[in-house]
Design a protein that fits this description.
single chain; three-stranded antiparallel beta sheet; 3 helices; disordered N terminus
C-alpha cells in the first residue's frame, strides 16, 4: 500500500519503523514544584545509547525535604556551588541531534 503524505507520493511502499521508547527521570528535593527544586534530569531512548542526556541542577529555593533529597543521593551543598541553573534543561533538545 502506498501512502500520500504532505502531497508527495513515495516511490516505494511505506515501511513502518519500530516505535522508539524514551525514559525520563527527574529527581527533586520536595513534593511539589515551586517551593522545592528539580535537582536532576535524565533522559534516554531505549536501544540508542547515543541519545541520552543527564544534568544536575542548582536548587531554586532554600526549602527542601531531607527525606526527598536522600532518595537521590545528591549533595545539596555541592549542587548549590557547582550545578548549572535550571535553564540548563533547555540544552536537552540539543543533545538529541
Amino acid at each position: 500500500m502506498l501512502a500520500l503524505r504532505c502531497g508527495i507520493m513515495p516511490t516505494q511502499p511505506e515501511r513502518k519503523l519500530p516505535e522508539p521508547y524514551a525514559a525520563v527521570d527527574v529527581e527533586a528535593d520536595g513534593p511539589v514544584p515551586g517551593p522545592y527544586s528539580m535537582i536532576s534530569l535524565g533522559m534516554a531512548v531505549v536501544g540508542q545509547p547515543g541519545l541520552a542526556f543527564y544534568t544536575e541542577l542548582r536548587p531554586i529555593s532554600g526549602d527542601f525535604v531531607p527525606e526527598a533529597l536522600a532518595v537521590s543521593g545528591l549533595d545539596r551543598d555541592r549542587l548549590l556551588r557547582e550545578a548549572p541553573p535550571s535553564s540548563a534543561t533547555s540544552s536537552a533538545d540539543r543533545k538529541s541531534t
